[in-house]
Amino acid sequence: MLEIGKVAVIGAGTMGAGIAQASALAGYRVVLYDISEDVLHKALTGIQASIDQGVVRGKIAAEAAEAAKTALTLTTSLAEAAQVDLVIEAAPEIIDLKRQIFGELESQAPAHTIFASNTSSLSINVLAAATQRQDRFVGLHFFNPAHVMKLVEVIRGDFTSQTTLASALAYVGQLGKTAVLCQDTPAFIVNRVARPFYGEAFRLLGENAADHATIDKLLKSLGFRMGPFELIDLIGCDVNFAVTQSVYEATFHDPKYRPHPIQQRMVESGRLGRKTGRGFYEYKE
After folding, report:
1. What is the DSSP letter of 209?
2. Is 134:184 a contact under the CB 8 Å cutoff?
3. 5 band by pLDDT with thresholds 50, 70 and 90
4. Is the confidence at residue 285, as pLDDT, over 70?
5. What is the phi/psi pair of residue 64, to 5°?
6. Which domains occur in the chain, in start order?
7. SS3 at position 150
8. Is the dihedral of CA 48, 49, 54, 56 positive or negative?
9. pLDDT tens digit string along 216-235?
């Protein structure tokens, strides 16, 4: 098993920042990469504020908070980010983009470096095929917010070695999270189960059976902590739509996974949820 000491997170968006924060708080040295310096600094500001809030709430010791802050490094150099033990890609859910990133990382990372993708629905085998280290490639699917949610899907590709798997499981354990091992199947476990949760809600909305707020209220009355539309706004309407499209394609257009026109309309009109200030609900800073 490879002992992981330094981790790189590729992509400083919501998921990437959350993974970086969780890794730093777990004692890892972390390199956070993005092509945009503005995005990097915004992510760092958010991470530091979140850590400080954890101290105020008594969730994080002051010493651990300071150590985590100093463990974080920002970079716009992919070559610099590659000099680690574990690279976790958290780029947008676009397969060609992810494969391009891994192809570039392949030529710059040390031979021992493990590659992981935070993809929520794309094939680990297809992503791994962009590299020459399919035995050192694994899926690590975190859930939003990544520094809070305890579950991590650990996806084994057809060629993922037992050593790589053991290292990935140890890393997730060090974060204090619960690892669920699964094979490389369309949408893995959670997103596969969640498609009908969202899909039926969209169909009800599209048929004017009820408005989105009523549907959310009804689902929460059954014990769900959030309704489907509240959850979509949190995740991002664009992410939800991309995952639905991916599952639909991967299952050869199985009708139960078919996207709904409302999803496309929300994305094309820029109503992506919390991150844009407006989705199915409106949000103030």
Report:
1. S
2. no
3. very high
4. no
5. -65, -35
6. 6-183 (3.40.50.720), 195-276 (1.10.1040.50)
7. coil
8. positive
9. 999 999 999 999 999 999 99
